[in-house]
Amino acid sequence: MRLRKLTIGLALILLAAGVFAAPALAKDPSVSTLKQRLQYAKHKRDRAHERVVAAAANLAGARELLAATGGNQSAPAPAATPDPAATDTAVNGLTVPAGMSPELAAALLADGVVTADEIAGLQARRTAAKRVERRWTVKVRVLQKRIRQLKRIAVWNRRGQWKPLIDIAGKKYGVSTAGLYRMMMLESGGSRTIGGTYKGLFQYYPGTWTRSWNPWRHESIYNGWAQIRATAYALSRGMGRSQWPNTYPMAF
Asked: The whole model's pTM is what?
């Protein structure tokens, strides 16, 4: 019984190793999916910006209260200027500065004085809020860039403009873009529909195309962008001479 359990356990380990050794399916998110992510990121960025504005207002208000209560003056306190939006909200006889949270003012003045440590804490809050805003701003920019890139790739692929696509794939997988382009031209002359037994830009046999080594095996064999990426990926794994024994040596 114990031997049987060990055998089953070993089989499961080997099965898991085989699963994880295979390349993951490389499915790019669609433009619509990226747009949804972009909308969410913009929402988070805008909310973060609101928190930055509120944190800045609370810090400025706390500095005014610091000056008004005669607390530790080590923190700079800008001169107060009349604000037409100011309210008559008051805490302990002091008017709450415009834009400042009345609840925060009440908490700061609970002991009758605002301290430099409390000012430092509010500065840290503002800094943290700015950090979050910057992170979401970068996320928005990255998503916008990815959407633009995917749109360009779709146009290039539709029009059969292979050079920019080869540049992208070659750089990603560390393969000579010039060599990749030469091999494509030797195989198909740049025609994605050419071939009988072997098909597409790099003349794949269908059985080879659909094997587990190929992360794009579920794409059409006539999809130029899929073949370009699959070929760059295969070359990066040292499969050039075995897969393209005639054209690989001439191209590279």
From this structure: 0.72
